[in-house]
Design a protein that fits this description.
Structural class: mainly beta
CATH topology: Metal Binding Protein, Guanine Nucleotide Exchange Factor, Chain A
Strand content: 35-45%
Low-confidence stretches: none
CATH architecture: Beta Complex
Distance between the termini: 32 Å
GO molecular function: carbon-sulfur lyase activity; metal ion binding
Number of helices: 1
Keywords: Metal-binding, Zinc
Family: Belongs to the Gfa family.
CATH class: Mainly Beta
Number of domains: 1
Mean pLDDT: 94
Protein name: Aldehyde-activating protein
Pfam family, one: GFA
Strand order of the largest sheet: 4-9-8-7-6
Order of helices and strands: EEEHEEEEEEE
Length: 114
């Protein structure tokens, strides 16, 4: 299990699984924020804090709910539906505790032209 939070800690969560590879998307949103995304089933991510500080941003096709903290602005995860129709969480691994980012395999994704 992995523990994560936004910068100020008002949004805290835990995720089941071991992260070894991440998607590095070059779309206008992901590249500006420096996301490294780990996709898991939605049920694998549990929010362990109040959701009062959680705000949501959508853009483009409005199919992904990008969640961020209204206090510190940090964006730890987003929710959507995968290609197979299953609810998915996209976890920003930069918001997880004790993850060695240099040890992760980065998979480039061309979101800019998709």
């Amino acid at each position: 299990m992995q523990l994560g939070s936004c910068h100020c800690g008002q949004i805290a969560y835990e995720v089941d699984g071991d992260v070894s590879q991440v998607l590095e998307c070059n779309c206008s949103h992901c590249s500006r924020k420096g996301y490294l995304l780990w996709f898991v089933p939605r049920a694998a991510l549990r929010i362990t804090s109040s959701t009062e500080a959680m705000s949501t941003y959508t853009f483009n096709k409005h199919v992904i709910s990008h969640h961020f903290c209204s206090n510190c602005g940090c964006a730890p995860f987003g929710f959507g539906v995968g290609a197979e129709g299953k609810e998915t969480a996209a976890v920003n691994v930069r918001c997880l505790q004790d993850v060695d980012l240099t040890a992760l395999t980065r998979i480039p994704y061309d979101g800019r032209n998709t």
